[in-house]
C-alpha cells in the first residue's frame, strides 16, 4: 500500500480498494507491506515492511518511538507535521460551517521544553515498568529517556524507578505526575488508598535525596493529593509575580507555550478595561492581564485548590489583589448569565477538552464585545465557536500553538469580535 495522507488520529491513510485503511506510524508517500484484518470490520492494518520511505518521513529521534503511545507524529518532517496540525483545525471549523475563517500556520516548538508529564508504573515479579502506555492500550512501554521532557524530569527517573521497585507490592500500579516549578520538582504519586508509615518515610527520604520541592500521595487516579514531603512552597514565576501552585495542578505544558498563549490572550483582549477570565486555573492569564495598567479581572474556576492558590498569590501581592477578584464556580453547571457578562469589555475562555458549551450559549446572548477562546480540542472549540457566531460574533482568526510536540493534541487561540 501507498500512504496518501495522515488521518485525524495520526495514522497514515491508504486506499484499500473498498475504502480507507489506517496504518499507524506511517507517513505520506510511504510504500509498505501491511497485514489487513480478515474480519470484524476494522479498517486498521498492521505495518509489516517499509519498502520505500515517503517524502513526509524522517528518522524519529526517540528509541521508544512506535511502541510508545506518546509522540505519534515524531516520524513526520516539520512541513508535513505542522501542516497536519493546521489541517485538523481547518477540518473542525469546516464541519461547523466556519471554513471561511483564517487559520495561521502553526509555529514549531523546540524539543525538550515539556515541564509536566504523567507516567505509568507497574511492579512486576522481578522488575518495574516505568514509562508511557502503548497506543490504545494499558500496556506500559518502559522508557529510559524522553526527548520532549524537561531534563530535570528525566534526571529523577532512575531514582524513582529504584524507589518504586522497593515499595510497591508485586502487581501494583501507580501513576506519577511530575511538574517543573520555579523552586524544584513537584511530584504526585497516584496509587492505592493505604500507605503505611514505613512507605511514607521512604518516600520522604527519596524527596530529600532528589531535592524535590514537594512529594505527595493521591489515592486513586483523581484523589486529593496528601503532602508527604513539603520542602519548598511550590510556585511559578508569571511575569514579576510569584504564583502559588497546588500539588499536581494543571499548568500549560511548556513555559514557551504559556508565554505564546499569554501574549495572544493579551493581544485579543486589546484595550479592554474589565475582563472575565473563565476557567482561570491558578490565574495564568488573569495575573498576566492584571499586570497591565488599568485592567481589572474577574477570575473564575471550578477547581477549589486552584482558586485557593490564586487567592494565596493575591494575598502575597496586594497591588494585584485590588485588580483581580476570584471566585470558585462550576461554569458547566452555573455559567455566568448575560447580565453578569455584560459588565465586562472582554471574556477569556480556556475550558477543559470538552469545551464551554453552556458558557458559550450565555455569551451568545450577551453584549460582550471581545472573546478570546483558548482550547486544546479543535472539535469542541469549533462547536462553541458556532454558538458564538450564531449569536452575532465574528471569528476573525485562529492561531495554532504547537506546545504538545509530536503528539496529536493541538492548542489554539481564537479571536472573536461582536458586530
- CATH-wise, what's the superfamily of the largest domain? Vaccinia Virus protein VP39
Shape: flat
What is the count of helical runs?
10
Strand content: 25-35%
- Tally the beta strands: 21
Radius of gyration: 23 Å
Structural class: alpha+beta
Mean pLDDT: 93
The CATH C-level name of the largest domain is: Alpha Beta
Structure summary:
The protein is of the alpha+beta class and 419 residues long.
Summary tags:
419 residues, alpha+beta, OB fold (Dihydrolipoamide Acetyltransferase, E2P), Rossmann fold, 3 domains, seven-stranded mixed β-sheet, 10 helices, flat
Outline the structure in words.
- With 419 residues, the protein is α+β, with helices and mostly antiparallel strands.
- The chain folds into three domains: 55 residues, OB fold (Dihydrolipoamide Acetyltransferase, E2P) (Beta Barrel); 192 residues, 3-Layer(aba) Sandwich (Rossmann fold), CATH 3.40.50.150; 119 residues, OB fold (Dihydrolipoamide Acetyltransferase, E2P) (Beta Barrel).
- Helix content is 27%, strand content 29%.
- The protein has ten helices and 21 strands.
- Helix 9 links the parallel strand 18 and strand 19.
- The chain starts with a strand and ends with a strand.
- 46% of the residues are buried.
